[in-house]
Amino acid sequence: MHECPPMIPRPMAAPGVPGRGPVRPLPALAAVAAVFVIVQLAFVVPGSGLAWDETVYVSQVGGNAPPAYFSAPRARGISYLVAPVAMLTASTTALRIHLALMSGAALFLALWVWRRILPTPVLVGAGVLFAGLWPTLFYGPAAMPNLWCALGSLAATGWVVRSLRGGAGRTETAGAATAVALVALMRPADGFWLALPLVLATGLLPGRRRPRTSAALVAGLVTGCAPWIAEAYARYGGLQARLHRAGEIQGGLGWNFAVDDHLRALAGRTLCRPCDIAWESPATAVWWLLLPLLVVGGVGAARRAGRGTAALLAAATGLSTALPYLFLVEYAAPRFLLPSYALLAVPVAEHLNELIARTRRARRQAGLAALVLALVAHLTVQLSTLSHVVRTSRATSQEFAAVAGALNGLGLRPPCVISGDDAVPIAYYAGCASRQAAGHDASITPGELRSLARQVPTAVLAPGDAKTATATGGARTVRLLHGPESYLVRLLPGPAVEAAEAPGVHHG
What rounded mean pLDDT belongs to the chain? Predict the structure, then answer.
């Protein structure tokens, strides 16, 4: 074994370039975080609107509309994070800037945890590799929990590695517990799959058992899950009932081979459900196919450098967080694997750092140039895919906003209710409440919806190619045409019909 004795941490000097001193971690990591924020502000934030899931999370604490129905799988962590801005303003730009700055600070802090374990070039490499992925950049300013799970997972693993290396003091214990609690608060299931390998490592490794750290990790998991569990009993009929309903909404948890789905989704699909599309752009997945080899090589490189435990635990925890999404959930979304990517970036950076060091010692300029070109090509593909995803997302949110504006023009103004196809995001943009009589977000019966329509303006949306429903009992049907999409709007009897028939109302 080439690792340091567990109670005598080995000082980590950064591999230096002849004639230069070691790179200091603070300015280097600050630069990585700053570039991460700048790219978000330049490419992702301008002109962006809130996506479907974001409207659910933001509406819980403010924003533009009453709270949307909060389905069983969701947790409220991201709503707490956006609350300081969402309670003050409905501006999406303000919210995006807030989240971009917060994500940059969180990336810096997560990497900073590792400064006593990894040399600065490896730290910077891990930060660049993770921050340079298009899902990381796209979800940096997004009101979604996955990036925060990723950064919390990276920090938690770093604290545990420090504990295993002989530093199991109050700082390491509290840091590990806090990071796991953050992840569990965002996504309880992610918190479980993160805590599992960490608890096993601190409780079972011969000669490195850290019972205090194990207890802290369990306490952090329970603390982070507590609001979700309490809500299960308050609103869903108990923990088992909520777990069962959450599984139903996610398509039923069980053996589902989704590796190929994630491979195809890397081409720029934020959600692939069902993922029966063609593999549109294989170039976007080259790095993904090479990832297992790079991780294995990185663990070996870290072991030779005396950091094997750190790289191995990062790899094991990264695989644990990926397992449910690769083999238990029947659909794919690139954001699901962000915690895994953040952790696997550590051994990959170890591998690349060793390759660069060997190339320099051998003075193989061609080899060094090839490595640099490969990294540049990888980042170019990521930015190109990001550009595509941003354009698609922006067009979708603009479509939702246009339909919402047309509904306002029909007289559907707050307080109002919208149900049916794409009702959740459109209702948010229109300033209405969304209520569904069927599906995953079912929160009202058809009879209750009709009764509600007699009190406030209420509309039911259907796809534009649906057959025109017969307008009986005073209902009114309007077809909205906006861009490539169209909707069939059924205004239910009550104030909605009265408003639509008022003089001066535009019927699109």
Answer: 90
Among 337, 361, 385, where does a domain finish?
361
Q: How far is CA 65 from CA 47, 141, 396, 415, 443, in A?
A: 20, 20, 19, 9, 17
pTM score above 0.90? yes
Average pLDDT estimate for 474-492 = 83
Residue 180 inside a domain? The answer is no
- Asked whether residue 500 carries a pLDDT value surpassing 90, the answer given is no
Domain identity same for 354 and 416: no
Mean pLDDT along residues 424-432? 97
Domain-located, residue 446: yes
More confident residue, 495 or 382: 382
Report the alpha-carbon distance of residue 286 to residue 284 in Å, rounded: 6
Given the structure tokens 């609350």, which residue do they identify? 83
Domain end marker among 361, 376, 408? 361
Residue 476 and residue 410 in contact, taking contact as beta carbons nearer than 8 Å: no
Q: pLDDT at position 55, please?
A: 97
Domain that holds residue 428: 393-500
In terms of domains, do 356 and 263 share one? yes
Same domain, 334 and 401: no
Q: Where are the alpha helices (DSSP H) in 6-67?
A: 25-39, 52-59
The string of DSSP letters for 149-202 reads: HHHHHHHHHHHHHHIIIII-SHHHHHHHHHHHHHHHHH-HHHHHHHHHHHHHHH
Assigned token pair, 494: 């009550």
Residue 418 inside a domain? The answer is yes
Q: Which range has the top average pLDDT, 6-10, 246-250, 387-391?
A: 387-391
Each residue of 235-264: b (16+ CB within 10 Å) or e?
Answer: ebeeeeebbebbbeebeebeebebeebbbb
Contacts of 213 (CB under 8 A, 6+ apart): 160, 163, 168, 172, 173, 176, 202
- Strands 433-434, 485-491: parallel, antiparallel or unpaired by DSSP? unpaired
Number of structural domains (the chain) is: 2
Q: What integer pLDDT is reported at residue 4 of this predicted model?
A: 42
The residue that leads in pLDDT, 56 or 167, is 56
Enclosing H/E stretch for 360: helix 338-361
Distance between CA atoms of residues 128 and 188, nearest Å: 28
Indicate whether 453 belongs to any domain: yes
353-401 pLDDT tens trace: 999 998 888 778 888 899 999 999 999 999 999 999 999 999 999 999 9
Residue 138 tokens, joined: 């796209």
